[in-house]
Give the backbone structure.
Amino acid sequence: MECCGVLGGSCHALGVQLHRMSTLDLFEDMPPAEEAGQSTIAPGAMLLHGFSLACDAELLQAIEEVLKQAPLRHMVTPGGFTMSVAMSNCGGLGWVSDSSGYRYSERDPLSGQAWPTMPVCCLELAQRAAAQSGYQEFQPTACLINEYVPGAKLSLHQDKDELNFSAPIVSMSLGLPATFLFGTTQRKDRPKRHRLNHGDVVVWGGPSRLAYHGVAPLADGVHPILGHRRLNLTFRCVG
Ligand code: SIN
Ligand code: FE2
């Protein structure tokens, strides 16, 4: 992939060091090659196995820079619960939650400043993943950064705070594996469970754009780059 940069560097904000790694180190906990490729998990929803693997060091360095300016924080839901997932954003708009509701904001409420710019390597990778899944000309305006530690979870929900549902959601997984729950547009339908590994990208749009989805409580483990954590980047066109 053309966005691949150096594989060395440091990632202090993420609390990890990215050592110069051989290709073997990078891939050793990945699924065997015969599982590589892509699968359709629901109509209009694709799981692209290992799609961001070749860019992971560059992605993580870019996110490190974003998080220096807009640190991860635990937002509070309108119902008064503190979310177990820590969040931040980059791009023109960022998703926020507080006692008054969920919304997209041009500014980080912690600093009062605009959210950091969406790194070009992240934007281009999201666009390539969307195109690979049949969604051409994806122009995301928001990138939500989610950090999960063991036990953190995201309850079943629909992504419906956007003004326009014609664009897909692109979701990149880094770090510890997670169990992604992906259902239909009906809450009563039991969601299917999909393992998301480091480097996997999920794209959902069209008939699945408003599908219920969530993340089961993260199992503990140690990822060679991210340690006891999972990072997820979701790209959205807010409209
Ligand atoms: C989300 O639904 O916004 C995030 C999903 C994930 O962390 O995989
Ligand atoms: Fe979501």
